[in-house]
Amino acid sequence: MEAAINTIVGQFKEFAGKDGSSSTLSKDEFHKLVTSQLPNFVKNAKDPGAIDQLMSSLDENNDGELTFSEFWQLIGKLACKQGGFCQ
Predict the structure, then answer these.
(1) Running DSSP on this structure, what letter comes out for residue 59?
(2) What's the topology of domain 2-82?
(3) How many CB atoms are located within 10 Å of the residue 20 CB?
(4) For this UniProt entry, which segments traverse the membrane (predicted)?
(5) Please, where are the H alpha helices in the chain?
(6) CA 21, CA 67: separation in Å to the nearest integer?
(7) For residues 13 and 78, what is the distance between their CA atoms, to the nearest angstrom?
(8) Which phi and psi angles does 59 have, rounded to 5°?
(9) What is the rounded CA–CA span in Å between residue 6 and residue 64?
(10) What is the pLDDT of residues 33-57, one digit of tens each?
(11) 8 Å CB contact between 71 and 23
């Protein structure tokens, strides 16, 4: 599990550092992360509108960027679905 956590944190940092703040994901960074790293887990990963909606649902403070805590919600939801623990 430690390797999995390190991978998730590393991927977040890699994509967050591409433009603007290195501690948050912009809309463009989030789109690139989802399409390249989660194409089989996120429905309509190639649809920019769907990704925008997903990001909006995760962006708790509505600042147009995702902190790691906000992003982590997505990881939790995907893991829950993948494991058959939720619908």
Answers:
(1) -
(2) Recoverin; domain 1 (1.10.238)
(3) 13
(4) none
(5) 2-16, 27-37, 48-58, 68-82
(6) 10
(7) 19
(8) -80, 85
(9) 25
(10) 999 999 999 988 889 899 999 999 9
(11) no
Identity of residue 3: A
Answer for the pair 74, 85: CB distance below 8 angstroms, yes or no: no
Q: What is the pTM of this model?
A: 0.90
Report the alpha-carbon distance of residue 6 to residue 58 in Å, rounded. 21
Instruction: Report the distance separating Cα 65 and Cα 62, nearest Å.
Output: 8
Burial class (CB in 10 A: 0-12, 13-18, 19+), 49: exposed
